[in-house]
Amino acid sequence: MASHYLEFERPIGELETKIEELSRLSQTAGAGAFDAEISALRRRVADMRRETYSRLDAWQKTQIARHPERPHFVDYVGQLVEEFVELRGDRAFADDQAIMGGLGRFRGQGVVIIGQEKGRDTTSRIKHNFGAARPEGYRKAVRLMDLAEQFNLPVISLIDTSGAYPGLGSEERGVAEAIARGTERCLTLGTPMVCVITGEGMSGGALGIACGNRVLMMEHAIYSVITPEGCAAILVKDGTKAEGAAKAMKITAQDLIGLRIIDSIIPEPLGGAHADPTAAITAVGDAIEAELKALNALSPAELKKQRAQRFLAIGRN
């Protein structure tokens, strides 16, 4: 179980702390001394978690999507992709580590995989710029998609970002144009492309690598044109009103599948992906595999047509 508890998970955390204390006491009091109490507490924890996660609101899902122990791009690659070879650089300016990608073998099939990596500790977060890509990150993604088409490889894209990096250097090097080029390349790709929103899918920073034939979303992920904090800051001039903004913005998977913005929802383990990362990653792999099997039968022209129809249908009755 994750060691970092969100605000609404604190009652669960307190009970799990009691279970740990009783387990330690049982080591000195003798085997089985507190087995009945521990079993009762574990049942209560399971019931509380089930009840809590059955009625999450959009702000609570936002917190889960940002959980520091949620699986990251490197975790998905490590568990799902064999013989992974990372490819770096955009061949124009530099290598951006907020977007990573390369070649590998996914369940026996050669693929190109790209995605955002936020980093897990201070050093890696700085290295990966907290998942906020600069222009060269999107240009690297375009280069990888070009490579995928050249060698007839499907593309897997894993999205988890609060948005592209908005700093001065990023703007000077044309981040908006780079995102547009990334979006365009997704839409014109002649090989299958499956995209998964694994955590946050915010703004153009997400869209630049998310316009595939199929867009999947994890059960507690979020996807929107802007973060709740950014929305609140713009509309009511107060970023602290993010909770209300999140609830109004229709950012959850359950909202978006009804609007046909995403194609399907990938269930998460009880307690969220951070509670059982291995099971969560396996579920994502199973969903991607199923989608690729269907898409592999389509010709390049059919893939482009399906992708165009998919996005043109959004917002229509």
Structure description:
Helices cover 49% and strands 16% of the residues. It is α/β, with parallel strands linked by helices and 317 residues long. The protein folds into two domains: 7-55; 62-312, 2-enoyl-CoA Hydratase, Chain A, domain 1, CATH 3.90.226. Strands 1, 2, 3, 4, 5, 6, 7 and 8 form an eight-stranded mixed β-sheet that branches. Strand 2 and strand 3 (109-116) form a beta hairpin. It is globular. The N and C termini lie far apart (43 Å).
List the helices and strands and how they pair.
Blueprint: H1 10-29, H2 35-53, H3 58-65, H4 73-80, E1 81-86, E2 99-106, E3 109-116, H5 122-127, H6 135-150, E4 155-161, H7 168-172, H8 175-188, E5 193-202, H9 203-207, E6 214-218, E7 222-224, H10 228-235, H11 242-248, H12 253-258, E8 264-266, H13 277-295, H14 300-312
Parallel strand pairs: 3-4, 4-5, 5-6, 5-7, 6-8
Antiparallel strand pairs: 1-2, 2-3
Helix pairs in contact: 1-2, 4-13, 6-8, 10-11
